[in-house]
Amino acid sequence: MIFSIPEEEQLLLKERVRTSRLIGRDENLVLHGGGNTSVKLRIVNLAGKSIPSLFVKSSGSDLSNIEMKDFTALKADDMQIAREIEKMSDLEMVAFLKGCMLDHEQSSPSVEVFLHAFIRSRFVDHSHADYVVAITNTNLTDEEITKIFSGRVLVIPYVSPGFQLAKFFLKAIDSVDLSKYEGVILRNHGLVTWGDTAEESYDKHLRIVKDAETYVKKSWNGINLQKIEEEKVDQFIDFLPKLRGMLSRKNRKIITWDHSPEAVGYSVLEEAKKFRTLGPATPDMLIRTKKNYLYAEGIGEIENEIDAFVRSYESDFKKFIGERYPMHDPYPSIIVIKGYGLVTAASSKKEADIIRDEAIHSFRVSIAAGSVGDNRFISEKECYEMEYWPLQEAKLRKTAKKELEGYIGLVTGAASGIGKTTYVRLAEEGVLAIGTDIDEKIFEVAKSIGDYAYGLRFDISVEDSVKSAFREIVEKFGGIDVIFNNAGYLHPSKLEDITLEDLKKHINVNAIGTFIVTKEAFKVMKEQNIGGSFIFNVTKNVTNPGEGMASYGTSKAFAAQLSKYVALEGGKYGIRSNVINPDKIFRESKIWEDGVLENRAKSKGISIEEYKRGNLLHIEVLPEHVANVVVSLIKENIFGATTGTMIPIDGGIK
Ligand code: ZN
């Protein structure tokens, strides 16, 4: 840090953190990174000089778990220069803010920072409170809204984000005696409050929101809850892969299906159809939700509705944005289906869940607004301007999407060895990676990978378990694109020592288990109709048998042959199927534990190191080699024309 914060000022920053988190943890005030807070402090620079500064939430941080370091420090006096500036483009504004920052190692401040700079009080809080926007997203006049709050708030009309909002806000607060007010309501946007202490600003915030709630609840008390009919659950799970396929024609999507009583309750309301073109609760949501959602009276209608939605999005895009930016994915992010609840779709699970939360809050706000007045949101043009906001577009271009984002891939035997390494790699590539294993360690592994990983424990040779696992996957994420058939059982025995019991165990896992997983996944992929990829981890024993491996090699030969049938019958649906033959992968491999490796080397009269590198390339073959081949096999631009084949990963057999 190139400045220090005196101890007494640090206490104020701690207070700032505390009430910021209180705001961030109330979903009726802000959602997922929304809202922002600030505090004005004096810091000491390297020359020992005390400087007034503004600490404001950095962009990209989340109030619910914000820390002291997440507040970006700006030179307060430099920020005041903005009062004299008439106009700044978004890019100029970003450059201006960079110039005001005290430490360039920090993230940029939230672009709403000017609201915080122009209010002179020490603490400022800004939220997008549901009950407040419910009152402003109506035809009520500013005066009528002011009256609801007994004149304690200043109401200003909607202005799109950026410096014009800052200037408009400045003019509005400069034209009144601000000390007479407790807060400013920005129509179709949210609430700003301030105070000399964190407590004071927070209390005012809660009071105004409480008044808004009391007012709204006079005419409305929440969406009537309705439980989904039981048979509809099964019906919809059967339909989900098809739906995912329809929504993934341009980019693969992860689906979140919400059939909570509130989502179902909303879906059966008359307003659910009426509000489909209204827009979300606040403009910042438009980037994810789009202005319109898709509404369908039943499952049968959805396909036509999706086509109509895409056509209308494309024509609106042409009309409002034209050549300025590349078009976003034109498919709906939100679908409301009467009696079934709500479906959201995005390129990652996290995004799909955020959109779900934004949708539910928007439903509440729209219904609430409709009960206190006539619904009004910002214009269609403003909606598109917001969805294609230049700063957001610049960010999109900078942050490259992970190549396999939106894919859903399953790895069997993922708790250790090659399976685990591949599981981790898939998640790194953006695949929603589902690791399965018979070992409960799989949950620990999934947790250690993070957001992109999901763990399931089942025995691949038990048909019912596999069926219910696929049902769970479809219900949670919508479908499946990739299967890495990796789980296997190996117990070497000389031919004459093989017991039937042990042979059956090999066949059960390596042949039948692999078949069951393949069959269930194939059905889902066929329904989706967007292709898919199977990768079978077989063994060099199939092409080049090793002594003592009869049970293993013959059972794996079943899997190798099965792959050819998957390629044959899956080709017309774009489903590819290939075999990989890794050999002598020692690292993290159970097969070579307990002296097996040492014995093998010894029996050949060579060192362990020589044994490991006993291939044409004289290299040790690593689990990473296998994982990278699997990742490449998924990629359509690399192996999109390859199916029904076998790839050795063995350094070249001597
Ligand atoms: Zn805001």
What does this structure look like?
With 654 residues, this protein is an alpha/beta fold. It has three domains: 3-216, L-fuculose-1-phosphate Aldolase (3-Layer(aba) Sandwich); 230-398, L-fuculose-1-phosphate Aldolase (3-Layer(aba) Sandwich), CATH 3.40.225; 408-648, NAD(P)-binding Rossmann-like Domain (Rossmann fold), CATH 3.40.50.720. The strands form three sheets. Strands 1, 2, 3, 4, 5, 6, 7 and 8 form an eight-stranded mixed β-sheet that branches. Helix 5 packs across helix 8 (198-219) and helix 19 runs parallel beside helix 20. The model has no long low-confidence stretch (mean pLDDT 94). Residues 112, 126, 128, 189-190 line the site of zinc ion.
SS content category: alpha/beta
Q: Number of domains in the coordinates?
A: 3
Low-confidence stretches: none
Mean pLDDT: 94
**CATH fold-level topology of the largest domain:** Rossmann fold
- Please identify the top-level CATH class of the largest domain: Alpha Beta
Question: How would you name the oligomeric state of the polypeptide chains in this document?
Answer: single chain
What is the CATH superfamily label of the largest domain? Answer: NAD(P)-binding Rossmann-like Domain
Portion in helices: 40-55%
Strand content: 15-25%
Count all strands and give the number.
Answer: 19
Principal-axes geometry comes out as globular
Termini gap: 59 Å
Q: Describe the biggest sheet?
A: 8 strands, mixed
Q: What is the gyration radius calculated from CA atoms?
A: 30 Å
Examine the secondary-structure arrangement and name the CATH architecture of the largest domain: 3-Layer(aba) Sandwich
Bound molecules: zinc ion
Q: What is the helix tally?
A: 25
